Amino acid sequence: MKQINTKSDESYITHNSSSAAASAPPAAASSISVKSTPEIEKKFVHHVYDAIAPHFSSTRYAKWPKVAEFLQNLHPGSLILDAGCGNGKYLGFNQDCFFIGCDISPSLIKICLDRGNEVLVADAVNLPYRTGFGDAAISIAVLHHLSTENRRRKAIEELVRVVKKGGLVLITVWAVEQEDEALVKKWTPLAEKYVEEWQGPGSPRATRVSSSLSLESIPESEESGLGGEEMKVCDKSEISGDLKEEKNVKNQQEYFVPWHLPYHRAEVSGASAHALATGLATKDDVKGAVVYNRYYHVFSEGELESLTNGITNARVVDQFFDKSNWCIILEKTS
């Protein structure tokens, strides 16, 4: 199979310099802010995947049938862009096609490189490919790690931008409607008060909290939602609080999902030591593991499709629910 040298052939890469961003006109300001990574993603997505990369990779080898079907049905010779390729398990899946992958995690990209894949480090909301470069693109289990609606929409726009007219884009995300409810009970729901931390001051959804609080400094007892004080005013407040809590559970979409890195893993002595020292990870002596929290925004039915409403050069050709994931296939129309 022909190899595309990403190290020397830069004809497909678009360069974005910091000086260009600094001199951008006011109209571009919102676009630049969307590309600025919120702290919650840096700490609880980027840092975590770099720390757990080898262990994570060892668990990621099975191909989802729906993704395999999509890749297998593409025309021979197609160039497929895998945005958020992880350990590269889909790269080269269809031997009649060419693959280029990218991921925000240098540690995962190194694993891909060691396997001989064509990859580079890149952000899903700012893909480094020229417009119309690929014949198809996939984004598998990536968008749920983006912490704002604007960033999730921007990632979809980027996937559409980098494929040719008529090109297909497959996107999968974790769903609110998880088939294994016991699994969800192991997740930590993030309360509304966290929103300001990752969206920034002035967010219409944000509630005011002390600027001195950080995500890891808030006691675990508060992470489940309502504080105890506002539920003890009177009987009427208790009823109202109970109803509010029930509504929050049903509508909950922001979570920390734990990853247990066993003590015997070699990487525990590296990044994990620093994470434990700084409070970004904890020890679970019962399970013999260092526990990392990964940020997830799980998607409700119709939410993924709604993010495409403002994208005028793409149409939805298929959408479906598969293995606790919402999935969508887009076609670029112009």
In short:
It contains 11 helices and 11 strands.
Report what the structure shows.
By secondary structure, the chain is an alpha/beta fold. It has a domain at 29-177 and 300-332: Rossmann fold (3-Layer(aba) Sandwich), CATH 3.40.50. The chain is 30% helix and 22% strand. The protein has helices at residues 18-22, 29-35, 39-58, 65-72, 106-114, 149-161, 181-184, 195-199, 235-251, 271-278, 303-306; strands at 79-83, 98-103, 119-121, 134-140, 163-174, 188-189, 254-262, 281-284, 289-297, 314-322, 325-332. Helix 3 (39-58) packs parallel to helix 5.
N-to-C order of helices and strands: HHHHEEHEEHEHEHHEHEEHEE
The major β-sheet equals: 7 strands, mixed
CATH topology of the domain at 29-177 and 300-332: Rossmann fold
Q: Quick one: overall form?
A: globular
Write out the CATH superfamily name of the domain at 29-177 and 300-332. Vaccinia Virus protein VP39
Extended strand count: 11
Strand content: 15-25%
CATH class of the domain at 29-177 and 300-332: Alpha Beta
Helix proportion: 25-40%
Q: What's the architecture of the domain at 29-177 and 300-332 in CATH terms?
A: 3-Layer(aba) Sandwich
